[in-house]
Amino acid sequence: MPSKLYVGNLAYSVSNSDLEKLFSTMGQVQSVAVIMDKFSGQSKGFGFVEMTNAEDASKAIEQLNDTELKGRNIKVNEAKPRGSSFGAGNLSGSYRSGGQSRGGDRR
What we know:
Blueprint lengths: L2 E6 L7 H8 L5 E8 L6 E9 L2 H11 L3 E2 L2 E2 L1 E4 L29
Antiparallel strand pairs: 1-3, 1-6, 2-3, 4-5
């Protein structure tokens, strides 16, 4: 079963092929994606690597986390699934309904 890894603190010059080359030393790589800004085309400094099996992914985390790649110590850990965070910041009742203000008369 494939295991997806998050790779952070990447130098902006790191490419998909750089990550694939590095992670292939740990086992078979299924896919690689350095995340790019859609407007500037520059790397956002993180990416994802999908390893073919969980054992290789664990080995990659253990051996590559906090190692140097192009002048920066990369962070490697298991990627967490994206949750539905839509509107999550507004669940505390920060919206008010009605047109009246709170507190006393305004004169």
